[in-house]
Design a protein that fits this description.
Blueprint lengths: L1 H21 L6 H12 L1 H4 L6 H6 L1 H6 L9 H9 L5 H6 L21 H15 L12 H4 L7
């Protein structure tokens, strides 16, 4: 009897997780991406970092200070997913599996201290984005832009 209850409980829990994942319970910016970025990215892209317009106007100065554009909100990050700088997030975080030369993006190394941690964190980003592409904004079709599944 006890085993039956445990088996049914495990089955119910598994079904609940599948349901949640397919009905908005998946990766979100607030619950998953922002906390990950706080730990891995905000040293250079946190509240102290310049807004994108200021960064673009003084890129060399900020790069010398090891600062990138601020990426602390959903809206700011979306600029690098499917905005004017579409694909930039993916190009910089990619592990090299999607490049011709196999070279990872310049920010991949900051996703974790070990390759395993980097791959785990990359998987979270990939699940959140939904459509992992290294294309730039001008290369993306309207249909491709609709494939991004990012949730706030």
């Amino acid at each position: 009897m006890k085993r039956s209850v445990m088996a049914v409980s495990a089955l119910f829990l598994g079904a609940s997780m599948v349901y949640a994942g397919s009905h908005g319970g998946g990766v979100t910016f607030e619950n998953n991406i922002r906390p990950l970025m706080e730990n891995q990215c905000f040293a250079c892209h946190g509240e102290h970092a310049p807004l994108l317009e200021e960064y673009d106007a003084n890129k060399e100065e900020f790069e010398a200070l090891l600062q990138g554009p601020r990426m602390t909100s959903y809206e700011m990050v979306m600029e690098f997913v499917k905005g004017d700088d579409a694909g930039a997030l993916m190009r910089r975080l990619d592990d090299g599996a999607n490049t011709q030369d196999g070279a990872p993006g310049n920010m991949f190394t900051y996703l974790g201290e070990t390759d395993e941690e980097r791959q785990e964190n990359l998987a979270v980003f990939k699940e959140w984005v939904g459509y992992w592409t290294l294309k730039r904004s001008h290369e993306l079709s309207a249909e491709e832009l609709e494939k991004f599944t990012v949730h706030k």
